[in-house]
Design goal:
The protein is 77% helix and 2% strand. It is mainly alpha-helical and 338 residues long. Strands 1-2 form a two-stranded antiparallel ribbon. A hairpin with a 7-residue loop joins strand 1 and strand 2. Helix 6 runs antiparallel to helix 7 and helix 6 packs antiparallel against helix 9. The longest helix is centred in the C-terminal third of the chain and has 55 residues.
Amino acid sequence: MKRAETPAGGACRQTSARPETMRERDIANFTRQLATMLKAGLPMSCALETMSRGQGSMIVNRMLTDIRCKIEGGSSLFAALETCPVPFDPFYLQIVRAGEQTGTLDILLGRLASQLECTLALKGRIKSMLYHPALTIIVALGMIAIVFPGLFFPVTLFLAILIASTWGFFSARKTSRDFRMGVDRLLLDIPVFGKVARDNAIARWSRSMSTAYFSGMPLIETMGLLDGVTGNHVYDRACRHIQSALEHGDTLFQAVRAARVFPEMVLQTITVGESTGKLDSALDKLAEYHEREVDLRIATITSLIPRLIIIVLGILIGFLLISFYSGRATSVLDLPGL
């Protein structure tokens, strides 16, 4: 398969197409910039050309060139993105198609950009909460191995086992659906951390639902596209159950309640939104509430983590020292004449 590429100041030429990966941050920036330029009244082709001039990433630049050539060849933005070497998820594509069909592409791209930015912010805060303690523990253990040369081997072995176990855990979670379902279900039951995971999933679900509802997308189709959006397999499965219930004639409130994973506040918000005809606004408020809850809980956890690290390191250092000196004492007692 071939794709079009436009050299600076030249016509489109054909180059081989191959799948490329692009960071979520780049997709969010692309969406925000395109929404802003379309809202300002720039034609699609001009907006894409302007965006490509300021790009430092070759992947993003090639994507923009590819899309612009297809737009100039008569394709819609939806068709151009659908066949783009950089894969866009089905939810993103359907929002773009709805925007083109209703003439509200700039508005929907703006909402989509806000959703992507909020999701990235939530992911960043959660990763920061997890990465900093892990890095602190690894550095502390490395310092122990340097200060106490006799502990170098046990500390190195412990770190190797820890790193290998972590890599194996995340690899299994990524490749095995059953394993990830079990882990995600267990995560929701862990005190404090489970609440963070639940609030994060509900916030992402609410944002996506609000954007899809505002676009005019049917609820049944929306639920089919939300699989994978929440970041938790338990809630992804709930979306499939809700879709099935909607297909059997249930209201959104009835379908969400039957899923049994959403708190009462979500059910009440949906009831109010459906009765007033402002479900998108109600879901936006719901997402904002749960995002604030995530922030508050992460701040609480972050304030407790240094104390927990000190306790864990103290126990670990004590164990290693006892093991080390007990081995030394045994060696001394085994000397001839003792």
